[in-house]
Amino acid sequence: MTALPSPRVTIKDVAARAGVSKGAVSLAFNRKPGLSEATRDRIFAAARELGWEPNLTARSLSSSRVDVVGLAICRPARMLGLEPFYMEFVSGVESVLTEHSCSLLLRLVRHVEEEVGLQESWWRGRRIGGAVLVDFRADDPRVAAAERLGMPVVAVGHPSLTGSLTSVWTDDATAVTEAVRYLAALGHRRIARVGGAAALGHTMMRTAAFDAAARSLGLAGAWQVATDYSGEAGARATRSMLTAAPPDRPTAIVYDNDIMAVAGLGVAAEMGLGVPGDVSLLAWDDSQLCRLTHPTLSAMSHDVHGFGAEAARTLFGVITGSGPGSHPVPTPVLTPRGSTAPPRS
Amino acid sequence: MTALPSPRVTIKDVAARAGVSKGAVSLAFNRKPGLSEATRDRIFAAARELGWEPNLTARSLSSSRVDVVGLAICRPARMLGLEPFYMEFVSGVESVLTEHSCSLLLRLVRHVEEEVGLQESWWRGRRIGGAVLVDFRADDPRVAAAERLGMPVVAVGHPSLTGSLTSVWTDDATAVTEAVRYLAALGHRRIARVGGAAALGHTMMRTAAFDAAARSLGLAGAWQVATDYSGEAGARATRSMLTAAPPDRPTAIVYDNDIMAVAGLGVAAEMGLGVPGDVSLLAWDDSQLCRLTHPTLSAMSHDVHGFGAEAARTLFGVITGSGPGSHPVPTPVLTPRGSTAPPRS
DNA sequence: GCGCTTTCCTCAACCGGTAAAGTCCGATTC
DNA sequence: GAATCGGACTTTACCGGTTGAGGAAAGCGC
């Protein structure tokens, strides 16, 4: 396609065609008062005839408001594709942005440091009007960076991690506790957990909550490991747990995402262990994947799409200076399916 | 966070601090000749001290070049999260964009019509400098739209679908043929296929290729159905295929993505059929998911990340007016794993 | 010492909008 | 009949860069 530089039509052309000034066209297109119905119509007609739409670059330069929101995701590409969480989250964010005719600038980064640099550069370069920050870790450098820049931001993470930033989060501690209580109520005494990335704040909170719940229920061995969230890591972790001799072997395993639970299911099958007969598995997030396996996977279920939407709504609140401020979204709830049952003996 | 409107530093401040004119600063930051080493250094030092980065909005307004690329994806949110393909593709696109300090504008849309409107609006509004178009269908309206707008575009799809647009594609027909030949070579005579969305061009091509391959091999019943790519649809399709009485029941099923193959695996287990003993399953795309199940899934495997990267590279070629033009990327190759074997009897 | 390049940098006109101040005019008000 | 007012636009000054046309100073050949 030869990109012939078609004589691009501008506001001036529209103004000329409608027989008015640029200013009038601007007023019309921003739905501001001060124009007669007739003129407004004439302007719109002229614009339609010329196929004109306001140049958003020029608009945001002069009005110094940017209708783009940034989101940087920091996980290896391999893992991302498999993590239903992100795409669903992104689609939730999108759904709200679209309502405000706002767009999402997406970037995959390798480290938090890279993300800090990117966000700063986006903001300094006036490319975004705000950002959604995800995957907080302890002492996350993005907290200070966002404050220093004065950039409107919504932090997806527990307030204990996100400092003064407006945040939106799920109550993971409560959810973990519910998961453990449920398995204990089924009769499990040896419950293990295959966690996510150790550096992430919500992993740390889940780990602590798991320990606390196990202790308070007097459970013998609360065995936890951290992974990188990948299916392979989940498989490895499961394999090492299930190769323990029966008295030590966990009879139930909680996973930090769906993929690892699916991998765990594969490992159990590979080892000839029945699910849920020999071992119960409990997934986390509850994407459609949990309903596709056999047995289907019980899961801690939450509305990830809605989570993303709520994050976006909150960000708009921050940008406009109104809005709800920090708040939790609904806690994941237990959705029992075919992979959890009382232990055999 | 109170977004106090920090007195934003501009090129003028930097110029003043370095004791030069705006123009000099511009030259320095665009690495253009005409400045002494010393002055250049002074300018960079001043910029660093003030924490200034050029306002990209202003830059793209005056230079009328936009370093943002658009990508609209048209699938229901539910499905997207589960489709490893997209995230991997996006991450491939990203990897190349990043090299060119370019960003990706992402949007999820519901219909092609919505996408046409969106792309047009993005382009007219000077928000993007080009776009990656995916999921072509027959007589896709985006072909005409892109031509009409003169928008630089790379079409991800077979040239028979993408008209005059520069395109990048995988040779699905050959891959399908290889899949069928492989299964036939194992001894399968009743091979079925669970396809993707019927409206999509590549689905149509795969369907035709599947028919042709089966015919040329003299296979009895080449049973194919179209789905919406969701795991649930894959499960339904598989269930209806496997409930056929043994002489009619397929002994091998080819899927159009990984998720449906996983779902198929679940259905087989649910029906008490062994994989690959009673039925062989062959997935498509080969995300990590295929190695997590038990048995592991044989798949038509390709480098989706690389596919995305190649699409992005080609788009840059179109934008700069140079570059390779339309070309295929490597054909998916068969990767046998645990889910395919000769039929039992 | 004079013209002629080169090198390095300034100036001012854009890019395509927005927004605040200004103009014009017919309708009220006193 | 002058003063006031509000509606409907127009003018004009930006927004923060880029860009091409100069211009001053230094270097060079003769």
Description:
- Two copies of one chain form a homodimer.
- Chain A has 345 residues and is an alpha/beta fold.
- Chain A is built from 14 helices and twelve strands.
- Chain A has helices at residues 11-18, 22-29, 37-50, 56-63, 77-82, 84-99, 112-124, 141-149, 159-162, 172-186, 201-216, 231-242, 258-270, 304-320, and strands spanning 68-73, 103-108, 130-133, 153-156, 167-170, 191-195, 223-226, 252-255, 280-285, 298-301, 327-329, 333-335.
- In chain A, the strands form two sheets. The first copy, chain A, has a six-stranded parallel β-sheet with strand order 2-1-3-4-5-11, with helices on both faces. A six-stranded mixed β-sheet of chain A has the order 7-6-8-9-10-12, sandwiched between helices.
- In chain A, strand 4 (153-156), helix 9 (159-162) and strand 5 form a beta-alpha-beta unit.
- In chain A, helix 12 (231-242) packs across helix 13 (258-270).
- The first copy, chain A, is elongated, with a radius of gyration of 26 Å.
- The N and C termini of chain A lie far apart (70 Å).
- Residues 1-5 of chain A have low confidence and may be disordered.
- Chains A and B meet through helix 4, helix 5, helix 6, strand 2 and helix 12 of A and helix 4, helix 5, helix 6, strand 2 and helix 12 of B.
- Chain A binds a DNA duplex (30 and 30 nucleotides) through residues 10-12, 20-27, 30, 32-36, 39, 54-64, 126.
